Amino acid sequence: MEEVSSFLRKQAEGDLLPWKHHVFAANHFGLTMGQVEKLALEAGLLPSRYQRNRKTISVNDQLRLFQTHVAVIGCGGLGCYIVEELTRVGVGRITAVDPDVFEEHNLNRQLYSTPAMLGQPKVEAARKRVEEINPAVTFLPLRCAFSKLNGAAILQNVDIAVDALDSIPVRLELAEVSTELKIPMVHGAIGGWYGQVATQFPGEDTIRKIYNRSPNGTGVEKGLGNPSFTPAVIASLQVAEVCKIIIGQGTTLTRRKLHINLLDMEFVDIQY
Asked: Which residue, 34, 35, 24, 45, is CA-closest to 1?
């Protein structure tokens, strides 16, 4: 692969690799876009699409993002925004899990829902979107419901699990499987003007503590509904947590829950 790396260095503008050369290298050397991105990053080159990351995320950090496999469990209000942001920031491998198709009530908030997509699987819409905006990302759509029975298989070789569910029992099963596999889990939940985010690392039981009073209930989303802005806010906070875990910077929400009240613009940090 040294021939490819040498070619990329010659085509680079400073330490930036323009998209046209990224595409040419893939076609000329018979590689995937992801393989070219990996070689560029390993050579210290930053694909130009990420140049606005560079003051926040170094080239080495960008390589860590690319080498990470994140599973997004749920591809609805939260999940679509999470997939979108992970793809744009450069996480290299994403698995999305959801059994559902788009319905009319999704149109107010779910990023990949359009009238033309009604009746179409959510994970397939996500796959098409990822291929369109960042072909270097490897995306695996799983049209199934997550459970304890299939959880270990779904999360095999995954580095981080992201909770975009609307069912408390399934969320607790995700937390349990994540603990068994010793992978971090980033939790998010929404309802009306409100949302919450937490991060559970292996050995912690934060999610169980959060839901200890209502382990068999449904999420508050069922009663409060959701406007368009709440999932976008909570999903962005979840993706920030994922990025911090990957690059090892900042302070995560370990043993904490951040409760967000957008109606009164109040953010409350609760310790667990």
From this structure: 35
Domain boundaries, the chain: 2-56, 68-271
Helix (H, G, I), strand (E, B) or coil at 66: helix
Residue matched to tokens 């419901």: 145
The CA-atom distances, in angstroms, between 196 and each of 156, 176, 204, 211, 228 are 27, 19, 18, 12, 16
Contacts of residue 78, Cβ cutoff 8 Å, sequence gap at least 6: 164, 188, 190, 231, 234, 235, 238
| Separation between Cα atoms, residue 50 and residue 77, nearest integer Å | 26
Distances (CA, A) of 168 to 152, 184, 195, 199, 211: 19, 18, 14, 16, 8
At 208, is the pLDDT very low, low, confident or very high (cuts 50, 70, 90)?
A: very high
Fold assignment, 68-271: Rossmann fold (3.40.50)
Distance CA 136, CA 139 (A): 9
CA separation for the pair 111, 259 (Å, rounded): 23
Put simply, whether the predicted model's pTM sits higher than 0.90 gets the answer: yes
The tens digit of pLDDT for each residue in 166-190 reads 999 999 999 999 999 999 999 999 9
Q: What pLDDT, in 10s, does the model give residues 221-240?
A: 666 778 999 999 999 999 99
Question: Any idea what DSSP says for residue 69?
Answer: E
